[in-house]
Specification:
Strand content of chain A: 15-25%
Number of helices of chain A: 10
Structural class of chain A: alpha/beta
Family (chain A): Belongs to the ABC transporter superfamily.
Shape of chain B: globular
Radius of gyration of chain B: 22 Å
Oligomer: heterodimer
Number of strands of chain B: 0
Pfam family, one (chain A): ABC_tran
Largest sheet of chain B: none
Largest sheet of chain A: 6 strands, mixed
Largest interface: A-B, 37 and 27 residues
Radius of gyration of chain A: 18 Å
Order of helices and strands of chain A: EEEHEHEHHHEHEHEEHHH
Distance between the termini of chain A: 14 Å
Bound molecules: adenosine-5'-triphosphate, magnesium ion
Helix content of chain A: 25-40%
Strand order of the largest sheet of chain A: 5-6-7-3-8-9
Organism (chain A): Nakamurella leprariae
Keywords (chain A): ATP-binding, Nucleotide-binding, Transport
InterPro entries (chain A): AAA+_ATPase (IPR003593), ABC_transporter-like_ATP-bd (IPR003439), ABC_transporter-like_CS (IPR017871), Metal_Ion_Import_ABC (IPR050153), P-loop_NTPase (IPR027417)
């Protein structure tokens, strides 16, 4: 699983373990500029279905840009993006990609309830006026149940705690039946307990035998990474490293991505006490 | 004179009925649209487009085309120019909006001043409710029903666009098309409303009712009901008042809306200044009583 992005082109489907299904997320040699700013430089990333992948890198390393590229919000100068073997546009039409926005991108005073927000996940499957059917309502109830927000469903979205707000948006992705979930810094401003709850929820969603989801999470919490992820990506305009969290979180790669001073702060968690069952 | 007579007498005149129908319809449409404008933060955009349609309306008058067509074209020009000014210079959006709409508005004023038959055209600026003819009423009705129907059919998409355009994009909708739709409807609505209150005051009807409703509810669906109800009530009250005070009708309607906003701002059940202040007083007292200083009820941060 461990490889360096600059080790030359890789075949699209060739990672050990996944032979038949197309990768859930394929980013190949993607370069993105914002005017003069070089945000991504030939970044490549392949994720197999049902994996949870943590995206780490310092501020401005291109994490949000990578998300935007996968969603087709930013058009890369060069390179290729595929989701479940589909072009980003086809994937969007089919509602394959669910997105949990960064907190500062949301107007928390907007007059919608938690249930309204989750129902927005269903819009892609509804008729012109987005009239909710019984199936839509059932899917929304189920999603709320799954993230344990049923009791708060009729609250205004801003009347939730930071962790609950994140779960509400995850519920929207569940109701959408998205098979790829993108979460941009879901743990910012969330306490350790809520973070653990969200991590557990994401792991369950990925491991769901009926509908395995692929989860890509950007985070600055290196210590929580091994509990959350099957694999981790170190980003610094390009993908510096992609592999199991314990490997990526060793001091040397981190120093590469964050600058040398990180060696004294983040020694990386001890892999021995962070393993979960079944991995 | 009884209150009933006081209310009823204005309707014995045909011109008053036409004026009221026009105002009520325009106010209701503006009020619907204002719910989205207020939430997206497009109030200034409403100001801009409603002013920028002026040259379009004047030119339409000159060549004998429908006002709505001229307004749509110039609404579009305004939006395009605003985008261009912002993205090709370091000027921020509010300045870009200010530059473009005042310039277009000035162009409209120049066109009015050089076009013969000035009396008619000055009504575009301040409205001329009492001179509304039957064809005007018909035009307002047709445009308002059209714009209102599109707004209601597309209401959930527009709300999604207002709340989370990224998600709209992610599920295959086009935020760009939705924003274009909203701006087009804004131009159309401006034409409808300028018959009633004139170009200068349209923006009030595009902001005040939505803002008032926003203070009264946490549900967007209810905003879409409360906002037009308030606007329609204010229209009727404003017109009756203007009849008896012999005051400008459009201005009276807007003044009524402003007063209602002020009342709601002060006295709204949960968000009004009075009720939040007394809730704070209650909390302070409760905190003072609980000498240990624990167990203070906290409200969710917003
Ligand atoms: N809209 C934009 N216009 C111009 N430059 C941008 C834009 N968005 C991002 N950038 C630049 O692109 C680079 C990558 O930004 P990006 O937001 O992807 O970083 P990030 O890894 O998400 O950072 P953070 O951890 O702070 O969220 C940065 O240098 C940023 O300044
Ligand atoms: Mg970011």
């Amino acid at each position: 699983m461990l490889f360096r992005a600059d080790a030359g082109p890789r075949p699209a489907v060739g990672d050990p373990g996944d032979t038949d299904p197309p990768p859930a997320v394929l980013v190949e040699d993607v370069t993105v500029h914002y005017g003069a700013v070089h945000a991504l430089d030939r970044a490549s990333l392949t994720l197999a279905p049902g994996r949870v992948c943590g995206l780490v890198g310092m501020n401005g390393s291109g994490k949000s840009t990578l998300f935007k590229t996968v969603m087709g919000l930013v058009r890369p100068d060069s390179g290729r993006v595929e989701i479940d073997g589909l072009s980003p546009q086809q994937a969007r039409r089919r509602g394959v990609v669910g997105y949990v926005p960064q907190s500062e991108d949301v107007d928390w005073a907007f007059p919608v309830s938690v249930r309204d927000v989750v129902m927005m996940g269903r819009y892609g499957r509804q008729n012109l006026v987005r009239r909710a059917t019984a199936a839509d309502r059932a899917a929304v109830d189920e999603a709320l149940e799954r993230v344990e927000l049923t009791a708060l469903a009729d609250r205004q979205i801003g009347a939730l705690s930071g962790g609950q707000r994140k779960r509400a948006f995850v519920a929207r992705g569940i109701a959408q039946q998205a098979s790829v979930l993108l979460l941009d810094e879901p743990f910012a401003g969330v306490d350790k307990r809520s973070e653990a709850t969200i991590s557990r929820l994401l792991r369950e969603l990925a491991a769901d035998p009926d509908a395995p989801r692929t989860v890509l999470v950007s985070t600055h919490d290196l210590h929580g990474l091994p509990q959350l992820c099957d694999e981790a990506v170190l980003l610094m305009r390009k993908v510096l490293m992609h592999g199991p969290p314990e490997t990526v979180l060793r001091p040397e790669p981190l120093a590469l991505a964050f600058g040398l001073d990180v060696l004294s702060d983040h020694r990386g968690p001890d892999p021995a006490d962070d393993r979960e069952d079944g991995r | 004179m009884t209150v009933w007579e006081w209310l009823a007498e204005p309707w014995s005149y045909d011109f008053m009925i036409r004026a009221t129908v026009t105002t009520v319809v325009a106010a209701a449409l503006c009020a619907l649209l204002s719910c989205w404008l207020v939430l997206i933060g497009w109030s200034l955009m409403g100001d801009a487009v409603s002013h920028a349609v002026l040259p379009g309306v004047v030119l339409a008058y000159v060549v004998g085309a429908p006002f709505a067509l001229g307004a749509l074209i110039f609404g579009l020009i305004a939006v395009t120019l605003i985008g261009a000014v912002r993205s090709t210079s370091r000027v921020k959006e509010d300045a870009a909006i200010g530059i473009v709409f005042t310039t277009l508005f000035a162009l409209g004023l120049v066109l009015i001043s050089v076009t013969p038959s000035q009396t008619d055209l000055n009504h575009i600026l301040f409205g001329n409710l009492l001179g509304v003819g039957d064809e005007d009423v018909l035009q307002v009705l047709v445009l308002a029903v059209l714009a209102g129907a599109i707004l209601l059919v597309k209401r959930r998409d527009l709300t999604l666009f207002a709340f989370d355009p990224t998600h709209a994009h992610a599920i295959g909708l086009s935020p760009r098309r939705l924003s274009a739709l909203l701006l087009g409807l804004l131009a159309l609505t401006s034409v409808v409303a300028l018959q009633a209150v004139g170009v200068v005051l349209v923006v009030a009807m595009l902001i005040i009712p939505g803002a008032t409703a926003y203070l009264l509810t946490d549900r967007f669906g209810r905003m879409l009901l409360i906002s037009p109800i308030i606007a329609v009530a204010c229209s009727v009250i404003g017109i009756v008042a203007s009849f008896w005070l012999d005051a400008s009708s459009g201005a009276m309607v807007v003044l009524t809306q402003g007063i209602v906003y002020a009342l709601v701002h002060l006295f709204a059940p949960r968000r009004g200044l009075i009720s939040t202040a007394s809730a704070r007083r209650r909390r302070t007292r409760a905190t003072a009583a609980a000498t240990a200083g624990v167990g203070t009820a906290t409200q969710p941060l917003r």
